[in-house]
Design a protein that fits this description.
Blueprint (H helix, E strand, L loop, with lengths): L2 H6 L3 E4 L9 H15 L4 E6 L11 H11 L9 E2 L4 H13 L3 E4 L3 H7 L2 E2 L2 E2 L17 E4 L6 E5 L3 E5 L1 H4 L4 E3 L7 H11 L4 E5 L3 H13 L6 E5 L1 E3 L20 H11 L13 H11 L10 E3 L2
Parallel strand pairs: 1-2, 2-3, 11-12, 13-14
Antiparallel strand pairs: 4-7, 5-6, 7-10, 8-9
Bound molecules: glutamic acid (GLU).
Length: 304
């Protein structure tokens, strides 16, 4: 791609699946929503495999996800990036935060934190045990970021202005885990900046992570993308569709029907005569008619 093309295409979105299983209806929503939001404004759309957590990766899932995207007419730009190829970038970001005194080593085990912590939005709020230095005789296990004691406010293009006090709600969170893996929160921020992503469109289950990501962007002086969080599809038990909740694999053979179901779920009211239309016609209609204002504001909605 030439530099001019990059310059003329300021919008760049992405879909960032974890290759822990095949796509299901829930992940297809994030794929279609991020694709349409970028493409409807002439933007690029990248696919990134979030495969940092090697032990959770399922062999064959990466290719299966890509074939399923292709079957649904969701063509991506450029090569598919794998997080596992970018470890040097995360290492460099952590080194910068170390240099600036914004991270510290932590010796606490999960059990120790659970014993002393209050519950926050995502389990235990780290009580700050190692913030002032490791207790005598303890070895470092993980690296935590020193979260500033001030609220973070951001605009979500579906949900409006949102504020979260990361220090109070989450506490100093882990950037490098005791098992040596980089945490999602650091990797996603570094990758989005490195890939020039201008807009993050994903499920509303990640709304609660956004303030943490903005805190890291500020510390690393990285540009802030715009955010748009889509409703999350839940099963009759109210659980997010996921591998854990045994969501069925999306069938590439019924791609046209799947696309229409996703468009309805996203409030796009696909034209009746699209029923039975080929994938390419549905995707072309959806790019032309994408209306982010019609997105349901609910954070969760029943899957069809
Ligand atoms: N890899 C994450 C997931 O599959 C998505 C991360 C993101 O879009 O920021 O839930």
């Amino acid at each position: 791609m030439c530099a001019d093309a990059l310059h003329e295409t300021p919008v760049r979105g992405r879909f960032a699946p974890s290759p822990t299983g095949p796509l299901h209806f829930g992940s297809l929503i994030a794929a279609v929503g991020s694709f349409l939001h970028a493409r409807s404004r002439g933007g690029q759309w990248l696919v990134r495999m979030e495969d940092l957590d090697g032990p959770r990766e399922v062999p064959g899932a990466r290719d299966d996800i890509l074939r399923t995207l292709e079957a649904h007419g969701l063509e991506w730009d450029g090569p598919v990036r794998r997080q596992s190829d970018g470890l040097a970038l995360y290492e460099a970001a952590l080194a910068r935060l170390m240099r600036d005194g914004l991270v510290y080593p932590c010796a606490c085990t999960r059990r120790e934190i659970a014993d002393s912590a209050l519950q926050g939005i995502e389990g235990a709020i780290y009580p700050g045990t190692c913030r002032g230095g490791l207790p005598a005789g303890r070895m470092p296990r993980s690296w935590r970021v020193r979260v500033p004691a001030m609220p973070t406010t951001f605009i979500d293009d579906a949900h409006g202005e949102l504020t979260q006090d990361v220090a109070a709600d989450v506490g100093d969170f882990v950037l490098k885990r005791a098992d040596g893996l980089f945490a999602y929160q650091l990797a996603v921020v570094v990758d989005d900046a490195d890939q020039g992503i201008t807009e993050v469109v994903r499920g509303a289950d990640l709304l609660g992570s956004t303030a943490r990501q903005i805190v890291l962007q500020q510390m690393l002086a990285l540009p802030k993308p715009t955010y748009l969080h889509l409703p999350v599809a839940v099963n009759p038990a109210g659980e997010k569709l996921s591998k854990q909740s045994l969501a069925p694999r999306i069938a590439p053979e019924t791609a046209s029907l799947n696309l229409l179901a996703v468009l309805s779920f996203l409030g796009q009211a696909p034209a009746a005569d699209l029923r039975g239309a080929p994938v390419a016609a549905i995707v072309a209609w959806a790019i032309e008619h994408w209306n982010a204002r019609a997105l349901p504001r609910a954070r969760t909605l029943p899957a069809p």
